[in-house]
């Protein structure tokens, strides 16, 4: 064996052999980690899965950091080899990169496959040789001996069963050769060792018969018969009974070998069942033919390969209404879930990116954000894997084109995608999507729509006027809906008067609708608009400056420069006129045709300056409200000086961190759209400051891909900013975002650029922030030596400039390193105690909570139980004061661990229950770990 040749042996007790020398880790957990990584070399093992396996579902609070330390130890064992063996961090987990043939289980599986192929071709000697070579790799009676980890136990059982299968196939091949004597002797031993394994008895009977010992073969059958009857009260299997009869009859067919056993099936994984359909449209009318076609298509899903339906037609024709109405009718046919997303293909703002859509769907399936792959192709792969063999309905509403939706289509039969678009989607139809093209409602259905909205007695009283309205609206459902809304809101208006009003309008709106010139949809909008009060009409126009996709009254107030209570009244008026839709109580949205109509009116009546001023006020509102919430969530963040708010803007101020988080969740998509809107309109400072304000929320809620997209937009927008400090902040934030999704090379490259810029600006505090961030990134990459060096350099820089807050953070990082990596709890204690003093001096309560949690961990390892409990309690109190609920729950969980270690089980259970309440309320994945502890399984 070459000096640096590495062999991984798991067919028996796990061993790592380097050039004939065993260097297997002696500690149990690193040895178990190596076994887990060896389950599938060159494939990523997710970090959360490894933690769950190593600690049997009840990991300690610092499990992720401890896992990194174990990886670091293994990496050091593997360092110095030049044959391609490496342990690397990849996409939320770790991968052991090695030549597959370096793992004995892989060689065993390859030899077994070679043997089976030869057996199928009746090349019995070649088959037996391959099988024996594979079986010779085993060094003991069981695989992974001594490793008690769930996934390893499962794999060990599979390998042990495979070994027995291969043994039987090998002996079966040898029985086909000229001299089966040695095979018969081995079968005698195996039936004694595994007396209830009938397949071995069957081979023994066959071997004895072929060796000319038929009497002994029949006696072996009698032994098996008595054994099964005594032990289990059953008779031998039909295959053994059949062989028994064949031996009695001296059947010549016994010279043929037995068939191989069928493969075992794998159980499906658990998954969440999404129910995302919006409310069914009220007063849905018509489309009987289209509904019938769609109903027929459901029965073809999974049978005829139909996986997509493309509903196409012009704006306002009722595509979404048809899709959602039918989806509610057909929901029971899709028991595995229904997904829905508005792709915003024809809004004024940018369409929803395919990546954003697939991540939203993965979230709906219950995939935690940290388990979402970083690469788009991998995200699509995971999404389609979740759809495989499931009956799921996917509504892709308002698609821009085929390219936007193609990645979101299911990859296998069973799921059905329903796409709505103004585009003809000819590419999808060419690939097999079923087309449904909508035209205007016919006169009967249009009349029925008006009848249902206005009551039959009203339309029956004025049949001619009803017909005129139908003709004027040309069967366009959106136009009919607006007319009906106006008539319903004004019961004293006659339909005759409304019809006359429609006939007066001269302008055309075909540029927006794409309809025949005979349809004057602008006329429908215009008289509805003219019926508004002047103040409401102005707000309607200026709302077109809002970035979308929806808005609350406070944002509408900012657009119009009025008080929020005035905005609420005007929004209600717009909703009554069907010029806005109240999607959920208190949140309103434009139909995209109406938004375009409002923008056209604003350009004509308010001018460019008026519209630009409205857009600026909207950005001011979101910036100042978001920043106020950000300060509640993270009050110790270095403050920034905001762009002043324009007159007429009334920012909201949440009462506490919980309320701020609720606001951020409700406004998440709007805030991201606002960042892009500011960038596209040249508002550089609004752009980066708004991103600065939303970062903590996106970070804490795990929306890391959105965070990357946000800061990439900002980076491009401020590339030419004249303030170098701004560029430093932006690039540092982008580097942080990259590091969260493990794009470490790009993050380090950005920090290299920032370091040069910080030097030019002589920004030593900025350099300290840079080194602290780089230390965090190195630690995430398990490069602990580099991490601790960066933390120390950050500490020196912070001390040079007297930045006490930075010193506290760096000292806590250094102390945590000493505790977790070095196991030097005394050094760790000294660093973290100094960090706590500084955090208290600066009033950094979040830093105090983090450091107290570290001190609790250290004190517990030093068996200072009372102090550990005290530290954890104080951390809980601080997190509660800061409304940092996940931090509060995490410290409560740690407090429970410390109380249990100290022997106070009742207090421990109380702490865990309190932690569980918060985790459940947040939908946090750690909730299950607490349930296990409370169930007494920890």
Automatic annotation (TrEMBL):
Domain of life, per lineage: Bacteria
Listed SUPFAM superfamilies: C-terminal effector domain of the bipartite response regulators, P-loop containing nucleoside triphosphate hydrolases, TPR-like
PROSITE patterns linked to this entry: OMPR_PHOB (PS51755), TPR (PS50005)
Keywords for this protein: DNA-binding, TPR repeat, Transcription, Transcription regulation
DNA-binding region, residues: 1-98
TPR repeat residues: 849-882
A Pfam family hit: TPR_12
Domain annotation OmpR/PhoB-type: ranges: 1-98
SMART domains named in the record: BTAD (SM01043), TPR (SM00028), Trans_reg_C (SM00862)
Similarity field: Belongs to the AfsR/DnrI/RedD regulatory family.
Protein name: BTAD domain-containing putative transcriptional regulator
Organism: Glycomyces rhizosphaerae
């Amino acid at each position: 064996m070459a000096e640096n040749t590495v062999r991984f042996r798991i067919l028996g007790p796990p061993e790592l052999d380097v050039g004939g020398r065993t260097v297997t880790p002696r500690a149990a957990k690193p040895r178990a980690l190596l076994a887990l990584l060896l389950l599938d070399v060159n494939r990523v093992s997710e970090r959360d899965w490894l933690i769950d396996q190593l600690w049997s579902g009840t990991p300690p609070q610092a499990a992720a950091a401890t896992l990194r330390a174990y990886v670091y130890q293994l990496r050091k064992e593997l360092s110095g080899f030049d044959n391609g063996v490496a342990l690397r961090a990849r996409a939320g987990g770790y991968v052991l990169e090695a030549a597959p043939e370096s793992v004995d289980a892989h060689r065993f599986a390859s030899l077994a496959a070679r043997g089976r192929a030869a057996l199928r071709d009746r090349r019995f000697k070649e088959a037996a040789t391959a099988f024996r070579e594979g079986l010779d790799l085993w060094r003991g009676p069981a695989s992974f001996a001594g490793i008690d980890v769930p996934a390893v136990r499962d794999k060990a059982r599979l390998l042990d069963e495979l070994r027995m299968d291969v043994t039987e196939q090998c002996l079966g091949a040898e029985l086909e050769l000229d001299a089966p004597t040695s095979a018969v002797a081995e079968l005698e031993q195996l039936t004694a060792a595994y007396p209830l394994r009938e397949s071995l008895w069957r081979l023994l009977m066959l071997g004895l018969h072929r060796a000319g010992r038929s009497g002994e073969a029949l006696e072996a059958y009698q032994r098996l018969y008595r054994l099964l009857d005594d032990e289990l009260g059953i008779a031998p299997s039909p295959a053994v009974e059949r062989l028994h009869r064949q031996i009695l009859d001296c059947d010549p067919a016994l010279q043929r070998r037995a068939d191989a056993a069928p493969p075992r099936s794998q159980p499906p994984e658990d998954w969440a069942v999404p129910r995302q359909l919006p409310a069914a449209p009220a007063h849905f009318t018509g489309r009987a033919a289209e509904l019938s076609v769609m109903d027929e298509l459901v029965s073809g899903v999974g049978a005829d390969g139909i996986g997509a339906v493309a509903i196409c037609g012009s704006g306002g024709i009722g595509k979404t209404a048809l899709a959602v109405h039918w989806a509610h009718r057909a929901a029971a046919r899709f028991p595995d879930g229904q997904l829905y997303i508005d792709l915003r293909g024809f809004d004024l703002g940018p369409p929803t990116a395919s990546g954003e859509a697939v991540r939203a769907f993965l979230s709906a399936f219950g995939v935690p954000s940290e388990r979402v792959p970083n690469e788009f192709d991998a995200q699509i792969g995971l999404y389609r894997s979740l759809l495989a063999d499931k009956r799921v309905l996917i509504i892709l509403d308002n698609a821009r084109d085929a390219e936007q939706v193609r990645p979101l289509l299911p990859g296998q039969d069973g799921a059905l995608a329903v796409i709505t678009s103004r585009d003809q989607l000819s590419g999808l139809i060419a690939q097999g999507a079923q087309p449904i093209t909508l035209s205007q409602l016919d006169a009967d259905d249009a009349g029925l729509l008006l009848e249902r909205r206005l009551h039959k007695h009203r339309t029956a009283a004025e049949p001619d006027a009803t017909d005129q309205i139908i003709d004027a609206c040309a069967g366009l459902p959106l136009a009919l809906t607006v007319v009906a809304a106006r008539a319903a809101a004004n019961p004293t208006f006659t339909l005759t008067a409304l019809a006359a009003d429609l006939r007066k309008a001269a302008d055309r709106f075909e540029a927006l609708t794409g309809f025949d010139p005979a349809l004057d949809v602008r006329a429908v909008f215009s008289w509805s608009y003219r019926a508004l009060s002047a103040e409401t009409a102005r707000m309607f126009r200026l709302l077109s400056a809002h970035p979308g996709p929806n808005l609350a009254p406070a944002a509408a107030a900012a657009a119009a420069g009025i008080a929020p209570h005035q905005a609420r009244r005007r929004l209600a008026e717009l909703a009554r006129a069907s010029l806005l839709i109240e999607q959920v109580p208190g949140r309103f949205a434009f139909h995209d045709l109406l938004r375009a109509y409002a923008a056209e009116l604003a350009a004509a009546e308010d001018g460019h300056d008026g519209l630009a001023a409205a857009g600026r006020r909207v950005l001011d509102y979101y910036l100042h409200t978001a920043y106020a919430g950000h300060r509640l969530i993270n009050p110790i963040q270095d403050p920034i000086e905001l762009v002043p708010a324009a007159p007429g803007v009334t920012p909201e101020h949440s009462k506490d961190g919980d309320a701020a988080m609720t606001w951020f969740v409700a406004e998440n998509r709007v805030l991201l759209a606002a960042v892009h809107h500011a960038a596209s309109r040249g508002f550089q400072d609004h752009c980066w400051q708004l991103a600065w304000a939303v970062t903590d929320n996106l970070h804490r809620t795990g929306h890391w891909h959105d965070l990357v997209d946000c800061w990439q937009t900002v980076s491009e927008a401020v590339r030419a900013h004249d303030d170098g400090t701004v560029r430093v902040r932006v690039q540092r934030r982008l580097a942080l975002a990259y590091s969260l999704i493990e794009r470490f090379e790009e993050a380090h490259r950005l920090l290299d650029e920032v370091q040069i810029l910080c030097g030019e600006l002589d920004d030593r505090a900025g350099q300290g922030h840079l080194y602290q961030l780089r230390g965090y990134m190195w630690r995430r990459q398990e490069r602990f030596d580099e991490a601790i060096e960066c933390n120390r350099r950050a500490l020196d820089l912070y001390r040079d400039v007297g930045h006490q807050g930075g010193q506290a953070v760096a000292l806590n990082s250094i102390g945590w390193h000493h505790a977790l990596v070095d196991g030097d709890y005394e050094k760790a204690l000294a660093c973290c105690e100094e960090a706590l003093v500084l955090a208290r001096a600066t009033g950094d309560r979040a830093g105090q909570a983090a450091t107290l949690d570290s001190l609790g961990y250290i004190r517990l390892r030093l068996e200072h139980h009372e102090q550990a409990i005290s530290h954890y309690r104080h951390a809980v109190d601080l997190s509660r004061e800061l409304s940092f609920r996940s931090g509060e729950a995490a410290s409560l969980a740690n407090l429970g661990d410390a109380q249990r270690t100290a022997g106070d089980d009742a207090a421990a259970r109380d702490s865990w229950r309190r932690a569980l309440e918060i985790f459940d309320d947040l939908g946090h994945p750690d909730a299950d770990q607490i349930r296990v502890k409370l169930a007494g399984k920890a």
